[in-house]
Structures are given as C-alpha cells and as structure tokens.
Automatic annotation (TrEMBL):
This is Amino acid transporter transmembrane domain-containing protein. The lineage of its organism: Eukaryota, Fungi, Dikarya, Basidiomycota, Agaricomycotina. It comes from Kwoniella dendrophila CBS 6074. Residues 63-451 form the Amino acid transporter transmembrane domain. The keyword Membrane applies. InterPro entries: AA_transpt_TM.
Amino acid sequence: MSYPTNTSSEADRDNYALGHRGDVGKTSDLDVELAKPTFNNDGKVVDAVWGTLEGNGPDYRVKATVLQLKTQVGLGILGLPTAFNILGLIPGIIVIVAIALIVGWSDYVVGTFKLNHPEVYGVADVGYMTFGIWGREILGFAFWLQLVAVTGASFLSISVAFNAITEHATCTVVWAVVAMLFVGAFGSIQTMSRISWIGWMGLISIMSSVITLMIALGVADRPSLAPPGEYTIETTLAATPSFIDAINAVCIIIFSYAGTPTYFSFVGEMREPRDFTKSVIVGQTFMTATYLIVAAVVYHYAGQYIASPALGTAGHTIKKVCYGLALPGLVAGGIVLVHTASKYVFVRILRKSTHLSKNTPTHYAVWYGCISVTSVIAFIIAEAIPFFNDLIGLIGALLGTLICIQTETYMWIWDNWREPRTKKWYCLVAMNVIFHCIGWFILVSGTYAAIVTIRDDFKANALSHPFSCADNSGAN
C-alpha cells in the first residue's frame, strides 16, 4: 500500500500512518495510545504492540492458518444444514458463496490494514484511529462481546455433547460448569504458538465428526428426529420461507464466517505477517468447500429432520459417536475463543506497560483474572440463552455483521481514500460501499428476526428454561 501522493516527508508519512487526520506536523494523541514499531540494536525482537520480546517472556509469534481454520470451522458448521432446510439447496449454496466472498474480502483488508499500521492490535485500535475514543470503546466492546457470546455457545454445545454421550447422566448446568473450567484452564496458556496444536486437534475432531455424520446418513441411518414407522425425506431446490426465517438462515451462515475480528491478533502474532493473504486464501477456500459439502449432504439425506446442532441428526448410536468425535473440537474452539477474548482485555489493561511482555506477578494476575472473568460471563450467556440456532443467529446478525463486514469495508475506504482516482479505485470503492450497506441491512433485519424467533420459541415452549437441568441433547 502506497502513501498518499501529497505526503512527501517522513514526518508526513508518520502522521498519515497514525490517523489520516490531516494534522501534518502536529503531535497526535495516537502516538501516545498506539506504540510505533521500533528496532533494537541488541538484536531483540521488538513488536509494535508487545514491545521488546525478551527471552524470559512469552513469545507472541505464531503461524495463522490453522488458528483461522479452527476459529471458523467449528460451531458454525453445525448450523448450516438447518440454513439449507430453510432456504433450499440452490439459495443455500448461493448465500454461502456470497458470504464467503464478502467476508473473504474483509479478511484480506484486516491483513493489509495491519501491515500498513503495525501498531494496531484489534478492532478497538481501528475504532480509535478512525473515530476516536468512542469508536474504540464501541468496536472494542462489540468484538469482546462477540467472542464471549460465541464462547458461551461453545459451552452450550459441549453440554449438549456430554448429555448425548452420557444419556444425561447429570444436570446440564453441571456439564456447562465442566466445560467452563476445562476451557478456561487450557485457554489460560499465554501465547497462541503454544495452543496451535489445539487448533489442529480441534479441526481434525470436527471434520471427523461431520464426515462420520455424512457417511451414517448416506448409508440410510435413520434420522434421530424422524417419526416412528415410515417417513419421507423432503428436500427442495428452492424453498419459500418467510422473511423472518430466511434472514435468520442468512445470519446462521454469517455466524459460520464470523471469525474475522480474531484475525487482527493472528496476523499480529505471525512470524511472517506478509504471508497473511496466502493463509486467508487457503483458509477461506477450505472453509467454503467444507461448508458446501457438509450442508448439502446432510440436508440431502436428512431433509426436514435436521437436529440442532446438526451432529444429533443421525440415529441414537451414531449421535453418540459423532458427539464423541466432536467433543475435542468443541473444546478446542472454546479454548481459542476464551484465549482471544481474554487477550484483548489483557492488552487493553497492560498496554504501554513493562508487565505486558514480561513474566511478572502483575502480568500473571491480570492474565488469569481476564481468563476467569471471561469464562464466567460466557457460562452465564450459555445458561441464560439455552438454545443453539437462535443464539448463533442472533450473534451473526447483531455482532457478526458489524465487525466482520461494516468495519472492514470502512477500513479499506478510510485507508485508501487518498489514493489516485483510477478506474480500479472507483470499482473498489463502489464494492466496499455495497458490502457496507448489505451489512447494515442484515444487522437491522437479522437482529429483529432473531428477537421475533426467540420470542415465538419461548411462547411455544420450544426451548428449555435458563439454568435448567433438563436434557438438551434432543432439542431441535
């Protein structure tokens, strides 16, 4: 990315990188808030966010592809067959591909923006650069809340898995507590480089479970929700859902791609940040192909008898097998999420402090405090909103679009507004404006649809009660 053509001096370029605010020659508050990258004559690694990474401190460097895949290929894939059941096969495929392209562009923008502004650690820093203090607080809170809410959804799915495997051996709340303690303990590992193996384990776990599900359904295993006796599988190429149902299905698909905000920290901790675009292309291609295959196959063989989460779709025995295979992956997803959410708060508290990258008592106290608080809040969300599809639809609509579509499209326009006005520039501006407007439309309509659906489900007694001991493994 080149600097603006009217920026000719080193001071001007520094000012541009710190905010595009036009105060050339003046000192911005951003040079106090956001650490500028420096170089150490002693040969020690100096990061624009973490500072000097000394040998006795945590090394915040990691390769990103596996963490991208594990962040994305997890809970989201378990709701996609339901989206196909609502939309139909062809509209479902079209929506997945469209969302993949839009969010794939957002992922790319995250990488280029981070390279242009190494001092940016997350969406909160982007908010501060573009809108000041209020931008930082609003986007930062939205990012943190999304991660915590999805962590809560992972706790909920883990409790479903335990209930399915053990045939509801104990109160569901107990299983959620077990999930919280286990995920929080492993999520407290300080650096992503040390939990990348968890990402591989989780990815293999989830993939093996959905492949087992597809094979079982393909060899005519009876769907668990099918009625006794004879039954007929109903599938459609193009369904005619109500607007509420259709937008909810779209939001479920958005949720499956809503890991974009975490990419800021991934690219910030990569050993080779300039390889981030390659990791995005590989990850997005693999994710989209996987989503299309799993959603289409499960929908084809289960039709209207798709369970939520989808792993419960096959028969009684296969249901246990699928959840048993998926359990490590569900736990791994929670670990990455609670780690990333806690890391955001951790950096906000200790940024510009020597305690950030050194193993001091303050460092450990703040870090484990962040892990504990994040885990407890996620547990409360999981138990207060004890349903899967409605929860992930609400997260996708209210939080997923805001910080996975609108933020990144605005980031590109803000970062490239002073570039030469070529045909390519005008086309890219138009594309980002269109994506931005689509995001706002889905946010407003999707949030409304999710609230209506939750209200209707409560009225119909279709959902378990908050903090209930009831078995949730058979819920639709």
